Amino acid sequence: xxxxxxRDTQTALxxxxxxxxxxxxxxxxxxxxxxPVGQPRLASASQPRLRALTVQLTLExxxxxxxxxxxxxxxxxxxxxxxxxxxxxxxxxxRIEVPATSDExxxxxxxxxxxxxxxxxxxxACWVETLITDPATGQTWD
Length: 142
Prior knowledge:
- The chain has helices at 9-16, 23-27, 68-81, 103-123, and strands at residues 49-61, 87-90, 93-100, 126-133, 140-141.
- The chain is of the alpha+beta class.
- The chain has a 5-stranded antiparallel β-sheet with strand order 2-3-1-4-5.
- The longest helix is centred in the C-terminal third of the chain and has 21 residues, at 103-123.
């Protein structure tokens, strides 16, 4: 057994072998409520819908002759845009597909994405300007 922070094995075993608090509730669900395996389910309102968005990303170094903006772009593409199936269109323009269950969820996701882009640019001593647009609705985030 690897060390996980407990002083003795009795304490660790108490947590490892504990029953799930939801086990009893799961046993009480009628079997006719569960969908049969292989049967398609109707899409519920809570299932995420993919939204195709365009991203315009402009990076400039804070110091003249610095090359850190190239590093920042590489990190932003790998860590911020890649999870959204990024498609590089032209220099600084990207297309991403964002799953969102609602407009509020999409707003929250875009705010988090822009915050992360700004954090990475700041860490690499760069100025960044980001504009994300939903071509279908015309909604923008910046």
